[in-house]
Amino acid sequence: MTTMDEEPLQKTPFVKEIPPKAADLSEWYQAVCYKAELVSLSPVRGCVVLRPYGYGLWERLQSELDQRFKATGHENAYFPLLIPESLFTREAEHVEGFAPEVAWVTQGGNEILTERLAIRPTSEVIIGTMYAEWVQSYRDLPILINQWVNVMRWEKRTRPFLRTLEFLWQEGHTAHETQAEAAAEVAQMLDVYAEVAEDIVGIPVYKGEKSASERFAGADHTYSIEALMPDGKALQAATSHELGQNFARAYDITFAGRDQRQQHAWTTSWGMSWRMLGALIMVHGDDLGLRIPPKMAPIEVVIVPIAAGESTLAIDFAKRLQAQLRGEFRVKLDDRDLRPGNKYAHWDLRGVPLRIVVGERDLADGKITLVRRDFAPKTAGRETAVLVSDIAPTIREMLVAIQANLYAQARAFLSDHTFAPATHEEFIAKAKERAGMLDIPWCNLPECEAAIKEQTSATTRNLRTPAHGPICLACGEPARVQAYVAQSY
């Protein structure tokens, strides 16, 4: 029972069936997140519990990113969650940009704090403070550090993975001797994000620079990868920021240069969060639930034995097969006491790429059946009978094919929903109706972007040069860049 002053604790909705995806993407999305046991709502408003299968997805993304970070010379570290207000306020533009989202600690135990502590919304402040202590000479540079952490941003409207008060991400922070080195770092990490998005998560993206109004607070330049969701909204999937010397000046990151003169370091930051998992769910999922690209799948192959009466032939074979495949694939044996149809639905919902059905009749012929999750039921090619002797190479080939097929479907959708409007009127109409990515010559003026947002709710997603036409399609001023414009999450 709650009093009038208390908010009722949030509870995870019970989902009996997954609604059709095309009818209401938002309803479908949340139903899949809960019924596939990716997340549960916690008692705290706007916060979720990441369940084991959901965490398995995060581990796959983390693993793919982490190996690339280390291959490009970065090391992992950890910095504190709490940031003193006096440090936080040194970089005015940064503070102003994050002020509405910052959660503050004002009391510890029974003690009222003399200085508020911010719960990190991002870590430029605390990391910049430490870099100032560590850097004395150009010989101390570059510093190439990443951390895997949780952050908190006080959001009013929340949705699993896409926008929550607390979320998981990685944030890289580097310091360099020259602007050119910092710019190269920013470009390199944007390429890493694009590679993981496309080659691992199977989601095609557009790379480019954010407009001034969409730029990270305190940065000189912000670059992003942008994906397109099935409802025509864009999703910012990762960002890479060239911070110039702004944070170095605010936090006194100085060093003796090669000429022994004191100068400020050039810094960067870059990050990808579990929002990418939200993109995976929306882009690849269907009316049965998830469809997970094999490279992202916590379980690549599930083995379902079908027993005949009291015989243990199928289960015994399935156990031997699991042991055989375990060294090469992420494989699970489902030997629960359930009907086969219930097991099939369970794993279809969870998007496991490949199912192996072991039946005694097939075994008598030296065969087992492989079922692909990327194909809809009753589609040609979904089920294939395979000789037991050919099982490992066939699985290998099928997983590659599934990964390629899911990416190709997503690429076709992005291509089919990227438009180059011919007129101002067409641009405004498509932006209002959420048609997809609108590729237009643009003036790059803040007042024009504000007018676009007021008229259509759309914003520029990112920019590149040169412009493909002489005139801005939004306002008629001379075009300076080419812009992708869309409504967004």
Write the layout of secondary structure elements.
Blueprint: H1 25-35, E1 39-41, E2 48-50, H2 52-71, E3 75-76, E4 82-84, H3 85-88, H4 92-98, E5 103-108, E6 111-119, H5 124-134, E7 143-152, E8 166-176, H6 179-200, E9 206-209, E10 221-228, E11 234-242, H7 246-250, E12 254-256, E13 262-264, E14 266-273, H8 275-284, E15 301-306, H9 313-325, E16 331-333, H10 340-349, E17 354-359, H11 360-364, E18 367-372, E19 383-387, H12 391-416, E20 418-419, H13 424-432, E21 437-442, H14 446-456, E22 459-464, E23 481-486
Parallel strand pairs: 3-7, 15-16, 15-17, 20-21
Antiparallel strand pairs: 1-2, 4-6, 5-6, 7-8, 8-14, 9-10, 10-11, 11-14, 12-13, 17-18, 18-19, 21-23, 22-23
Helix pairs in contact: 2-6
Task: List the keywords.
single chain; 489 residues; alpha+beta; BirA Bifunctional Protein, domain 2; Rossmann fold; Translation Initiation Factor IF3; 7-stranded mixed sheet; globular
